[in-house]
Design brief:
Strand order of the largest sheet: 13-12-11-8-16-6-17-20-19
Number of domains: 2
Helix content: 25-40%
Distance between the termini: 41 Å
CATH architecture of the largest domain: 3-Layer(aba) Sandwich
Largest sheet: 9 strands, mixed
Strand content: 25-35%
Length: 378
């Protein structure tokens, strides 16, 4: 393996910081930044939750606190996303960078948001700062895939998680499903929840399992992603755990306009998203646009089979994590994926392999929609 250059090593640190904030900063992207001079790292930062400072400011504050303003002047910064240049809840990051007297800034990837879109880079250059764009770009775009998806496609990045037997069954004929996959797989799912802005389930899963959709480490709750329920007829009772308001947990419900039971659901504090109908039930493409408008950039879909199939049919799934348990249930078992309406091989969604690995006794297979396949769908 080749030795990393100083800049590559510093961008790796910035990405490590950024990943720690995943799932905790929406609607803002989880940006990472690092400040250094020569071989010495002066400060690191990650974007704080909304209303708090952005990564660049956190890194500069850390560097100044530890080493003083004099040490920071003339230093370099690596940041995973182009610094913002407009006044929002916080002051522009470009202002903080200029006032700190940095000499050079390495930007992982450009910010396509209409209020930035190269303006942050231009502002730094006008102030005499040397800016290099595209450092560790592929890794930075991968990390910021949710934010970029919202800016470029108008919808969140959607990850579908499926856990099934080797023959693709998620439950017995009677509905028994706990537990098909093992503890390592369940631990992975909780980590995925913790890195996601939202977790989505269909009404069937909510009725069968009554999930809380929290992210846990052991028995301890470590994250409360936004809960998204797809329930066209509002069948899930208001007493369900998905509607609990523990520590201000937020719930969004995709439903049909005019569905009965709206008043009792609204009384729980849940937000109703009225979707137009479609031949398959509800227009989930419109639903994903609504989630983007609500500030969500990454959505983890946990089932069930009907919802998973509907999202695949509408070409709304970007990545699939399929966890296979070494067991068989046969034709009587309930399928992990409902009907896709495919009559010819040419109609099959095109995927590409990302990876495969063991999770205890289980196997995880990861695949992603092929680049260019349905990229214009909004």
């Amino acid at each position: 393996m080749k030795d990393l250059t100083v800049v590559e090593a510093r961008m790796k640190l910035a990405l490590e910081s950024a990943r720690r904030g995943a799932g905790k900063t929406y609607p803002n992207p989880s940006v990472g930044a690092v400040v250094w001079k020569g071989s010495q790292v002066l400060g690191r930062g990650v974007t704080r939750p909304p209303g708090g400072p952005h990564a660049e400011v956190v890194a500069l504050q850390s560097a100044t606190r530890r080493h003083g303003e004099r040490a920071v002047r003339g230093a370099s910064m690596g940041v995973t996303l182009e610094p913002c240049c407009f006044q929002g809840r916080t002051a522009p990051c470009t202002r903080a960078i200029i006032e700190a007297g940095l000499r050079r800034v390495y930007v992982g990837c450009r910010d396509p948001h209409s209020r930035v879109s190269g303006r942050g880079i231009a502002k730094l250059r006008r102030a005499g700062i040397d800016v290099e764009v595209g450092t560790a770009e592929e890794a930075c775009r991968e990390h910021h895939r949710g934010f970029l998806s919202v800016c470029e496609r108008g919808r969140p990045f959607v990850t579908l998680k499926l856990g099934s037997t080797l023959d693709g069954r998620i439950a017995t004929e009677s509905g028994e499903s706990r537990w098909i996959t093992g503890p390592q797989a369940r631990g992975l799912v909780h980590r995925m929840r913790g890195r996601s802005d939202a977790v989505m389930v269909g009404s069937g899963t909510a009725l069968a399992d009554d999930p809380a959709l929290t992210a846990r480490r052991g028995e301890r709750v470590v994250g409360r992603p936004v809960r998204v329920l797809v329930d066209s007829r509002l069948r899930v009772p208001a007493a369900a755990r998905i509607y609990s308001d523990d520590e201000g947990a937020r719930t969004l419900v995709m439903t049909r306009k005019g569905a009965r039971g709206r008043r009792s659901v609204a009384a729980t504090g849940a937000e109703l998203l009225d979707l137009p109908g479609s031949p398959g039930g509800m227009d989930l493409t419109a639903g994903m646009r609504a989630l983007a408008e609500a500030g969500l950039t990454t959505v983890l879909v946990e089932g069930g089979g009907g919802l998973a199939a509907a999202l695949v049919r509408e070409d709304l799934v970007d990545e699939i994590h399929w966890i296979l348990a070494p067991a068989l249930l046969g034709r009587e078992g309930r399928p992990a994926l409902g009907s896709l309406g495919i009559r010819a091989l040419a109609q099959a969604p095109k995927l590409e392999w990302v990876g495969m690995g063991r999770l205890g006794d289980d196997i995880r297979i990861t695949a992603r929609r092929r680049v260019g396949h349905g990229d214009n769908k909004q």
